[in-house]
Amino acid sequence: MKFLSLVVVVLFIGCAERRIIINSEPPAASVRLDGKERGITPISVPFTFYGKREVILEKDGYETYKAIIPLPTPIFQVFPFDVLMLLVPYPFIDQHQFYFILEKQKKPDIKKSLERMERLKEYLEEILRKRNKTLLILQ
Question: Would you say residue 7 lies in a domain?
């Protein structure tokens, strides 16, 4: 009889299903969550632990989007409420939804890039000249 009671209790114990739902505009962006490739948007990912998570979205023709998303612990997951939730006879769903808008990739300004490269070249040449002078003096 005790065994049957235990089986009935176990079958009717509730649990929490935790999911992160990520959408983007435009859709079909590649999603990395905490450094792991997860798929493309829209996507629903199960998770176990609460806290801050890093999300990175990438899509050809768009700027890479990086963000830290918060997953706060709900009250029903804090002691003693978490123990009481085990007695609820249906699963509890905890969903966190995020929507990101990706910006079109800007065309690089070639003129500015060339100017920056020229300044860098001059800077590096100056460093090499100073280093060579120091080496000549030491010899």
Answer: no
